[in-house]
Amino acid sequence: MNAGPAEAFPVGEHLMEELDARGWTQAEFAEILGRPPQAISEIVSGRKEITRDSAAQIAAALGTSPQYWLNLQDQFHLWKQTQDAGIRKQLNDVRLRARLNELAPLAVLRKRGVITATTPQEQAEQLCQLLEIESIDQEPRLPMAARRSNVAERVSAVQVAWLACVRRQAEQRPVSAYSADALRALAERLSNLVRDPAAFARFPALFADAGVRLVHVEAFPSSKIDGASFDMDGTPVIGLSGRGQRLDKVLFTLLHEVAHVVLNHIADGLILDEGEEDGQDREQEADCLARDWALPGRLPAVPDRISQGWLTRVATSLGVHPIVVVGRLQNDGVLNWRTLLAKNAPTVTAFLRTW
Prior knowledge:
This protein has helices at about 10-20, 25-35, 35-45, 50-60, 65-80, 85-105, 105-110, 120-130, 150-155, 155-170, 180-195, 205-210, 245-260, 280-295, 310-320, 320-330, 350, and strands at about 215, 225-230, 235-240, 270-275. The protein is mainly alpha-helical.
């Protein structure tokens, strides 16, 4: 913490030293400035502050700059403030609040009920517990080891806080022993299950049976996270932000994270997905597997003009919600992103919030 300015002395004392060095009395100096003697007496005694005009006159008489005298005055006032216990506490609280907001999006955490304390000191304790650091002077690490050397550099404080919330929720979720076969079998069923969007509400229990902790932490502003997966003491954890909202988008993010788990990518550490294709082999491998799970079976030949009737028939034959087919066609560039076929597409945010 900043200790504040060093000890300073009243500007009047500095002025008297200058007058003594020249052998001038206050009355003589007042005459030099063309001011009444009382004005100089009040500056020397500290009863009156130096103004810009008087600083310019003093500087002209003593061969200094006006800023020199104004700075001396400001330094003394700042130092005097630090000697007041109440002001010191206020400034320390300001420094503490600034540090808390450097570490995490404190306003968001308070709004979400993650941080419930009202004083900066108690908030600091709660934030340290969330980030698993001993003091706010430490830099928080990711909630788990990074899988790439550059992850620690590109993960922001907001993202680290989001991941810490995922970890906290996951720690409270009991699960069965992890089974890769059970998880793969579940992934193959998910698209069929969400023909009824309400099935999303049952996902945490289904994943727990396969030995995976599945949690939802709503996206923090500017976090840009769609999902994440990692190993926590031998148990896979998948966190979803629900940023896509639309059924097919959130479903694909989930299947993408499941693919990372099934393919054992999390053995090397954290997988953090921000919805941007980075061209890495593991991301492409997870995407391919997620695509197979999202739309089981092959699409028939696509007509030049896609009607709602054709879309419904194809979705029914594949056992999926029509929006899943729309999403595939949009990603393949067959359908425009503004197509009317996606109008009134179901969202799953309400179901995720039940997790």
